[in-house]
Amino acid sequence: MKALVTCSLFFSAAIIYVLNVISSRSSKRPPSPRGWLPLLGHTPYLLSPSCHLTMRKWANELGSVFLLNILTKPCYVISKADLAARVLSTRGPDRFRKAPQVYDPSLELTFGAPTLFNDCKEDEPYQAFRKGLAPAFSDKSMRAVYPVIRDVAQRLKARWQALALMADPSKQGEALDVSPWMQRCFLDIIGAAGFAKDFNALEGGHSSIFQVVHDAILVYDRRSVQPLEAPLCRLLPMLPIAREANRAMAEVRETFSGFLDEFKARGPPDVNDTRIWAQLMRVKDPQTGGPFPDTLIKGNIAILLIAGYDTSSWTSTWALYDIARSPDCQRRIKRELHEAGLLQVPGQPAARPLEWSDLNLPYFNAVLKESMRLHPVAGIGTVRVAPKNMELEGFPIRKGDLLWVPIDAVHNSVHNFTDPTIFDPARWLPETSNSSDKKASAASSSCPNGTASNGPDQGAAQQTLMPSASSPPQLSSSSTACGCPFAPKATRTGQAGAQSKSMLPFSDGPRNCIGLNFAYASVRTVLLSLLASFWFELGDDLKDHTLVEASQSLVLVVQSGIPIKLHLKQHEAPEQSVRTP
Ligand code: HEM
């Protein structure tokens, strides 16, 4: 009997292997990376914390569409930006829904309820939450919570200023690991600006919410690369790893249940309050006219908090890293801040407070955009299902096949960007665009990632926060190019508009990031507040950029495996222009 089973397994593996070889030679199929295994396909490559880097390499080697076998399922990887945007933006019955195989594991974090993030059917509850939450992310809402965001940014700045690093010369050699600080800061931002809650994560040393969410994310993440862990833990709950995971998940569920109890106890939100918590309490089930079940609301609270803070904190951490390794760019940002009266220099009159309108500083925004291109924190991207038999770039796709848009590979591949590995903010400056590109960038000026809309029923109003790519940067006359040591001498002209379309840090189409405006408002506020007061230099471990790039790993979002340690230094008094250390 055993021999029979072994034989038939071997036989079916051989057949699948032969079929795959035959089909991969067919001219109708896109290229496929070598090294797939019978039955497993390319799956082992994908169960790795650096699989986004493998996708980047394959995209550069194989071109804009290539084929993976996930177990025995075909998965078409699309890294050509315009094709990816077309797939993601398709609406109506033929839209490409999210693939349950990929999103279902996150149900564990959301009380088993399909939420804004992991609902793959997109039926009534999804539509109701997406539409109901939209006002929380509108321009008007973001302006209303801006002072709260700025307060938290000021608290972080004060904490860093108070660190002996600044005052004690003997500690000048020590660099600060900025990422845990950023995580606490963005937890406090989403707490206050989204949920009207003071988490006190910045001050609290070991604030419980920080620990609880962190532990749950680790379990989720481990299980993403070890898919057998969850079933094994269900089978053998007495195993230490199962007990630990159950504790972490129970704590996160208890925490978010507590949130909902508190929100209900607050009573109906004030009509003028459009923060996330208030909008969540307002969402009604169109069938009954009453609220949705508690599990669905709690699940959405969990996903909005988790999706919101980790992404934004790592985006800011990577941006500080990129700024610190490009002193000329940093100097140019300082100049921009100085000209706007925002640079805080010791011995000089106090800088004016950062206002909402300052979030549009053009050169700073080009730097942030370039950092988000090189280090898109949701770099793993999104996996969708083909709604019907169709053709994609001439390749036949069958209903149910998977389509994967790996955002990191889109941003870092040669078919979308010239010299993609180079950090060059100048590629986003309108002064380097030709007239036809200016038109393109003006068309997409309401949104740096070129996204035309933000969700099924959200109007363009949501996008007005974005910087105007067409307005000229206010810089000293001498500076027209970035001058970064990392940028090649010849500035790429005429690319800002065209390349904007290749930016997908928040995905695209009706399932793009609902929190885009919140993310931009908070990331810009925090970074500008810090840049107005500190000069950043890389810690010694970060001097080798290739090492930092290679150390990237996916822990919910793309992080650096090497702590991002930066020296914080004060500015010197500006003379004619800003002098920095
Ligand atoms: C820089 C920060 C952020 C980045 C780069 C980012 C990126 C993304 C991306 C790429 C997606 C699509 C994921 C997929 O299709 O699998 C997404 C979805 C989502 N994001 Fe964000 N995000 C950020 C901040 C936020 C914030 C601040 C919130 C909320 C407060 C948020 C809430 C969500 C939600 C709920 C979804 C699912 C939306 C849906 O499918 O309808 N994100 N985000």
Automatic annotation (TrEMBL):
Keyword check for Transferase, yes or no.
no
UniProt lists compositionally biased (Low complexity) regions at 467-479
SUPFAM superfamilies assigned to the protein according to its UniProt record, in alphabetical order: Cytochrome P450 (SSF48264)
The segment annotated Disordered runs over 428-480
Biased-composition ranges, Polar residues, are 447-466
Keyword Iron attached:
yes
Name the cofactor(s): heme
Signal peptide feature range: none
* UniProtKB keywords: Heme, Iron, Metal-binding, Monooxygenase, Oxidoreductase
Question: What Pfam family is a match, any one?
Answer: p450
Q: Which family does it belong to?
A: Belongs to the cytochrome P450 family.
Name of the protein in question: Cytochrome P450
State the organism of origin: Dunaliella salina (Green alga)
**What are the top taxonomic ranks of the organism?**
Eukaryota, Viridiplantae, Chlorophyta, core chlorophytes, Chlorophyceae
